[in-house]
Amino acid sequence: MTERIREFLRNRREDGPCVVVDLEVVRDNYAKFARALPDTRVFYAVKANPDPAVLKLLADLGSCFDTASVVEIELALAAGATPERISFGNTIKKERDIARALELGVRLFAVDCEVEVEKIARAKALTGAEDVRVFCRILCDGAGAEWPLSRKFGCVPEMATDVLEHACRLGLEAYGVSFHVGSQQRNTEAWDGALASAAEIFRECRERGIHLSMVNLGGGFPTKYLKTVPMVEAYGQSIFQALSRHFGNRLPETIIEPGRGMVGNAGLIEAEVVLISKKSRDEDEVRWVYLDIGKFGGLAETMDESIRYPIRTEHDGDRKIPCVLAGPTCDSADVLYEREPYFLPVSLEIGDKVLIEGTGAYTTTYSANHFNGFPPLKSYVI
Fold first, then answer.
1. C-alpha to C-alpha distance for 316 and 255, rounded to whole angstroms
2. Residue 375 DSSP label
3. Apex 44 CA angle, 177 and 375, nearest 5
């Protein structure tokens, strides 16, 4: 917790949970990415935290933006980004949304199948847009990630060349290849296999007369939760070595899409203990600790206990016992940590505040709108 956040919470008198994001941490994170990969453009993943203040800071610093919808495109533009600094990175888009993005000046689109290419080509013809670029997302296994991504996005590498050739036939520019090695990826070598596939696609496309320019290295850069994670510099060094190994002297343009790694450690949630109870009178020491925030209030990433947030209390020096941690809603799925109990101080009491660290990413965006009547998570950017 930064001193700026500590001072804000000291003076806060509102009721209910909130997340506080320190912009100075975001600024520092951006600088670290820029230093670690100096020849790579940063496309911040807006979905991680779309707060206008966060977007404006990053736009002022020169960041580009990875967007998943027209609304996110409009947010990036409102923050000061120009259209050429925006990528429509969702591979699942309505044709009318593609057309709207083109009208707004966006010219860079992700695809992973020929049907999506055809939608972009029709929208291009409808709007009269020129110089429309597409990059094809490929699948990779995501081994080593705490939040592995599913097969929802991307095609097998063997299919990508056909998709990109189809784009060329329809008057689009086949620009490059993208992939995502899984969120909260702690293995710095995870990019190697995907880059090997990308290099092969570049070679196959050259044989067909198609000259690709760019590799989108995706996100996956972690923030620190309970486990130690490598420094950004270690990722930069490993990625550069993999690029040199697979592309030799013909290095492509590269972009990255950090989200969690950009804002995760900049935020902290203050919550309150609502209830502490036991489920039986036997000698079982496990207690249930219910907070005024849960999966539906912004902590959706505790699903399957994939993300285990650091939790601090005023009693951390006392003896700790295993607890099941749960949210306040009338939904049995609103349990945060039960499979692997969380150790909290035995002196913790109803009404105590708890601080949940590393919550700058994917909390406000996952906060449900008045589920069970609970308001969305309050957010403050300082």
1. 42
2. P
3. 125
**Total number of domains constituting the chain:** 2
What is the model's pTM? 0.95
Q: Looking at this protein, which amino acid is placed at residue 257? A: E
Contact in structure between 131 and 172 (CB atoms under 8 Å)? no
Neighbour tally for 1: CB within 10 Å: 14
Residue 48 within any structural domain of the chain: no
State which of 199, 226, 258 marks the end of a domain: 258
Residue 277 · residue 361 · CB < 8 Å: no
> Mind telling me the catalytic residues?
330
* The domain boundary residue, chosen from 210, 242, 258: 258
Helical (H) or strand (E) element with 109? strand 108-111
Widest CA span in the chain: 74
Query: Domain with 205 in it: what CATH number?
Result: 3.20.20.10
**Domain limits for position 188:** 89-258
**Does 275 lie in the same domain as 148?**
no
Given a cut of 70, the residues of the chain with pLDDT beneath it are: 147-148, 150, 283
Coil/strand/helix, residue 379: strand
Closest of 103, 13, 49 to residue 265, by C-alpha: 49
Residue 145: both structure tokens together: 């990630």
Q: For residue 196, with 0-12 CB atoms within 10 Å meaning exposed, 13-18 middle and 19 or more buried, which class applies?
A: middle
Closest to 32 measured CA to CA, from 192, 227, 230, 228 = 230
- What is the predicted pLDDT for the residue at 88? 98
